[in-house]
Amino acid sequence: MELLATFGVVLALAALLSGLAARTPLSTSLLVLVAGAVLGPGALGVVDIHADNPLVSTLASIALVTVLFTDGQHLSVAEVRSTARLAGRALLLAMPLTALGLAALTVLVTDLGWLPALLIGAVLSPTDPVFAAAIVQRDEIPQRLRRLLNVESGINDGLALPVVLILLAQSGTPQGSTEPLVLIGELVGGVALGIAVPFAIKGLTRLPGFNATAAPALLVLAAGLTLFGVAELTHTNPYLAAFVGGVTFATILPEVRKGFAELGEQLSEAAKLLALLVFGGLLTPALLGSVPIGGWVLAALSLVLVRPAALLASLTTSRLPMNQRVVAAWFGPKGFASVVYGLLVLESGAPEAQEEFAIIAAVVAVSIVVHSSTDVPVARWLRKRTSGQDNVPDDDPDDGPVSRDRATSRAAPTPTDRR
Known about the structure:
The chain has about 425 residues and is an all-alpha fold. About 70% of the residues lie in helices and about 0% in strands. It contains 19 helices and no strands. Helix 4 packs parallel to helix 12 (about 240-250).
């Protein structure tokens, strides 16, 4: 109950300070992270947060399912197609290059072998532009750049998840079976469940007396709870079920998705901030002191070298202006997914799980501090240099047909609009 009460107070303060955060290098995400570190067992001890506490893993799982389900609803098949070529470069080229680059750097600067290094690379490969809200949510920022960051961040969590789970299985994790065929069955089952539940609901809406738009928020919330519960009962992967379920809903029931959008954003934001509070509580002096020197080197180089080089290489022949490429390359913050995947690593029981988590925590913490402190200045810099650059025809070969709804679907600020 102490954690719930503390989160309520911190969440209220974050909402009240969101206006100030929008005008300064501060961010509500950074404030919540610092609050967790200060209030956690490493400092004041107001809340007792430990990685081996079942409540931590339960909250992390629920939060990740919530975020994946909500993020998936931003990504209908048609909307993803609208920026497929440009985002495809980031997802199919830059993301694997980032993961492999981080793995190689981990082997080079630490004493870890290739398997844990590849796991660290996979955990840290997703981006989370929620920490780059000044880029994603400002209407004056070029539309193509916002679409790129939106689609990249919405999909890469789901792309990284199977790789993380497979590598965890090879490390001997309790998160799933270590048998490859069983693990593949869990992943395929999650995808199938994510498709089946929305189609079942769509079928019900065609029956007499059923109205999909009467209470769309409750309908989608019920679907999300059903997905999570059935996935647990059938031992299929709940994370993939949630993400695929969100995408399927957006594709076949767009009118219902729109009715859920505001509630979904608020639930997703609260889940992310709760996870950050818990993550901050785990950032004790003992944990940070256990990070090897190579871990801090990895944290620095992941920001200034690995992600920027990977994305700039993937965009080499694109028509995106160079200043927009630079901004996209810089804003590859490690965020919510890496936090939760890092907790999965810590729970795995693998021989080197503690060291892996310490390194992951260092990289994520440094990224949150740096990216959430530089998004406003960089957004202002970009705004001064983008005059006329967004006047590119909708049939730009780097993009598919433009989806007007998608271009602005996440541009509207939320109560904590500077996260």
